[in-house]
Design brief:
Elements lengths: L2 H33 L2 E2 L4 E2 L5 H7 L2 H32 L6 H7 L2 H4 L2 H12 L4 H8 L19 H26 L2 H8 L4 H30 L2 H6 L7 H9 L7 H32 L4
Helix pairs in contact: 1-13, 2-13, 3-8, 3-10, 6-8, 8-10, 9-10, 10-13, 12-13
């Protein structure tokens, strides 16, 4: 690209980049400053002060909360990716009602997470529709005997909401790539004697892997920082880190907001490390395969 063309493109991007830099970069710097003791509006200005991070990181409960946060994020992302890829592959096939189904599976994308949480309570709670239906057909004697799915640290309610919402996103992303690829390469592999699993593993998967990686990066970042589902459907103490930060921000002792900001900064650091490690691993894998 000619240098003048590059400069023109940079000038076109400059307004957007300035807005993003000021809004997000400025907020990040202010958050780090607060976590380090800069909060003159609270009468606190001990910058630079690492005591909030030290108190947070020395607490065993913090590490349990971090473990729950990553557990919900990784399990939900893994399930959404697996089922999303399977759904995308199924959408390439012809079946009755495919046109209608292509609209129905996208509905969770248009529904807020709060609605998904409400549906989880109505369906999976001990007095919900699933428990009443099982009691009606005689599987259990009373709805209260229904297995506890919500409000536990196993987090199946949280994971169910994440997967319900994010599976269509993965499927839509992968399906768009599959439509652009066509099926000529797969058919050639079959002609050469490859069975279905070999075709998927050696032909289809490498072609859709960039879409899988990009979509999983997005939903993992969201799941690590999500607040609503763990707050409403979680098992309580110890909470996930976003809920811990919220509790600090709502404490009567307003100086604990600096501890809450330390939680937020820590969460951003963990999220960044996880995502960069994941992306770096993927890039090394691609370089080994001879792709940049």
């Amino acid at each position: 690209m000619p240098p003048k063309r590059q400069i023109w493109l940079l000038m076109q991007l400059l307004p957007v980049m300035l807005v993003l830099t000021v809004l997000f970069g400025g907020a990040l710097l202010l958050g780090v400053a607060q976590a380090l003791g800069f909060a003159p509006w609270f009468g606190v200005n001990t910058f630079p002060d690492t005591s909030h991070f030290a108190a947070l990181w020395s607490d065993p409960v913090f590490w349990r909360s971090l473990g729950f946060t990553l557990y919900y994020a990784f399990v939900a992302t893994g399930l959404a990716v697996v089922f999303g890829v399977l759904l995308a592959l199924a959408l390439r096939e012809s079946f009755a009602g495919k046109t209608l189904f292509k609209y129905i599976y996208k509905l969770p994308l248009m529904i807020p997470y709060a609605v998904g949480i409400a549906l989880a309570v109505l369906l999976l709670g001990n007095g919900g529709m699933a428990s009443r239906m099982m009691a009606f057909v005689g599987v259990i004697d009373d709805p209260s005997q229904f297995p506890q799915i919500l409000k536990t640290h196993a987090g199946w309610g949280i994971i169910a909401v994440y997967v319900w919402k994010q599976l269509p996103f993965v499927a839509l992303t992968v399906y768009a790539v599959l439509l652009g690829l066509g099926r000529e390469t797969e058919e050639a592999a079959k002609v050469l004697g490859a069975h279905r699993w070999q075709v998927f593993w050696h032909v289809t998967l490498p072609q859709i892997l960039p879409a899988i990686v990009s979509s999983s990066l997005i939903i993992t970042a969201f799941n690590i920082g999500a607040f609503e589902a763990p707050f409403i459907l979680g098992g309580g103490f110890p909470d996930t880190l976003p809920v811990v930060a919220w509790r600090y921000f709502n404490d009567a002792d307003y100086t604990l907001q600096l501890r809450g900001m330390a939680v937020v900064v820590t969460l951003a650091i963990v999220s960044g490390v996880v995502l960069f490690a994941y992306l770096g691993t993927y890039r090394r894998f691609e370089r080994k395969r001879g792709r940049s």
